[in-house]
Design a protein that fits this description.
Elements lengths: L12 H4 L5 E6 L3 H4 L4 H4 L7 H18 L2 E7 L8 H8 L30 E6 L10 H7 L4 E7 L1 H14 L3 E3 L5 E2 L3 H14 L6 H8 L11 H6 L5 H4 L5 E6 L3 H4 L4 H4 L5 H20 L2 E7 L8 H6 L5 H4 L22 E4 L10 H7 L4 E7 L1 H14 L3 E5 L3 E2 L5 H15 L1 E3 L1 H15 L1
Parallel strand pairs: 1-2, 1-4, 2-3, 4-5, 4-6, 7-8, 7-10, 8-9, 10-11, 10-12, 11-13
């Protein structure tokens, strides 16, 4: 991942479209959208710009194949089972009453021979059911799994699915390049307005020839999607995994209501002694993280009634806990004094067990080039493990210091089982001493 502090902004187009970290994304080149006999053609939509767009996309595809650049083909299907009332209403607005891109129909097929090469290792095909390719598809998984930094977004229609995909790519911290002649719309006015907006706020809008002129200077080379490249980038030693340059130290739910004798859980009769014993271990690692310049993130549970669903409330075996613990704005929801956030340390507020669910955590991690999380806090079996699992599923390395996680007394057996499961599948469970030694080793090398 690009080092933000060292980069000189704005980056040049050449830096952005470097084949080493770029992917070509092709959106909705299907008969119903692009062919005169497709749904939009039969409805009288203007298709006059389609041939020129298809030729330009074809040129980019050919060059991407020559260079072994990753290509993501995205197709749409809008069968009744995936069409909500809101989506139906959107389609009916412009008078589009015909069924569009139904699975298994000619209209949903690729136009004019376009589509992925089934024998190519660098091409993947995804199906979406909304305008943006980032909704309900695995596109982000494929991009991050192959360390892609820039997406070149092409296809139809410019102001709809292409722009929606480009926007979501930008919001997920990808550089966006949208070659002006590789996308098309049924309205020149909407096409031009979309390109102006993208160029103004979210990416670059060169011509395809500008991109091709850069790519022609390169030759095929090892790419991030190659299995040998992935194997070579595996972090095998703890020193490498927990390198402070790409590590964040995450403290989960070490709040008064969970860990203080006067907090809500203790007042409800829970045995919080394990949480209390974990405080010095977390504090020692926190001090080391701060001394080493590691990003520290404090995760706070916030379980107010407005964010609670009936499912959330009903799932808690101690029904009162779901509505009484860590209420917004209360002392109980604050960090323990011993682990209070520093001035520049971000706080992530969550409303479910995992720190990744409906929070800004991943934005913080991606924005700071984080590859590894050291996860500490409580409760091991719930919020810690949920966060660890979600982190690993999002392709972060995870380290769990054994002494720095805890659960209530009634969960002691589950605490040990949780550590075993995390160590087996989702994280490296190590001692705090091992982690501190790894950080010290990194510091000595850096020095």
């Amino acid at each position: 991942m690009r080092n933000v502090e060292r980069a000189q902004f704005p980056l040049s187009l050449r830096e952005k479209v470097d084949p080493a970290h770029s992917a070509l994304v092709v959106i909705d080149l299907q008969n119903d959208f692009c062919h005169r006999d497709g749904v939009f053609g039969r409805l009288g939509a203007s298709l006059e710009t389609m041939p020129r767009m298809l030729k330009s996309v074809g040129s980019l595809v050919a060059e991407a194949r020559r260079l072994d650049i990753m290509i993501v083909w995205v197709r749409a299907t809008y069968d009744p089972v995936v069409r909500s009332p809101a989506f139906e209403d959107s389609l009916s607005g412009p008078g589009l009453t015909a069924d569009v891109c139904l699975e298994g129909t000619w209209g949903a097929e690729w136009v004019d021979g376009f589509g992925p090469d089934p024998d190519a290792g660098n091409e993947v095909c995804l199906t979406k059911h909304r305008f943006s390719a980032f909704w309900d598809t695995a596109i982000d998984l494929y991009l991050r799994s192959n360390r892609i930094e820039t997406v070149l977004v092409t296809g139809v229609v410019t102001s709809g699915c292409v722009e929606s995909t480009a926007r979501d790519a930008f919001f997920r911290n990808y550089f966006v390049v949208m070659p002006s002649d590789t996308c098309a719309s049924y309205s020149q006015e909407r096409h031009d307005a979309s390109l102006r907006k993208m160029a103004h706020s979210m990416g670059e809008v060169p011509t395809s020839e500008q991109v091709l002129s850069i790519w022609r200077e390169f030759e095929p080379a090892p790419r991030n999607w190659h299995l040998r490249s992935k194997r070579a980038s595996i972090k095998r030693d703890l020193d490498e995994v927990a390198d402070p340059r790409h590590t964040a130290f995450v403290i989960v739910d070490m709040q008064n209501d969970f860990c203080h004798p006067d907090g809500g859980m203790a007042q409800l009769g829970a045995d919080i002694s394990a949480n209390v014993r974990a405080i010095p271990a977390i504090r020692e690692l926190l001090d080391r993280a701060r001394q080493t310049g590691i990003l520290v993130v404090h995760v706070h549970a916030n379980y107010g009634p407005l964010s609670a669903s009936s499912v959330w409330i009903g799932s808690d075996t101690e029904a009162s806990v779901a509505l009484e613990i860590c209420q917004p704005g209360t002392w109980g929801a604050q960090s323990l004094a011993e682990l209070a956030p520093g001035r520049d340390e971000p706080i992530v507020v969550k409303h479910r067990y995992s720190a990744f669910v409906d929070t800004r955590l991943e934005t913080l991690l991606r924005s700071n080039g984080i590859e590894t999380l050291v996860v500490t806090g409580t409760a091991t079996t719930a919020c810690v493990e949920s966060t660890v699992r979600d982190a690993m599923m999002r392709d972060y390395d995870v380290v769990v210091p054994r002494e720095a996680v805890a659960a209530r007394g009634s969960m002691k057996r589950l605490h040990e089982t949780s550590l075993e499961a995390m160590d087996l599948y989702f994280a490296r469970v190590v001692s705090g001493e091992q982690l501190a030694a790894a950080w010290a080793a990194c510091a000595s090398v850096a020095g």
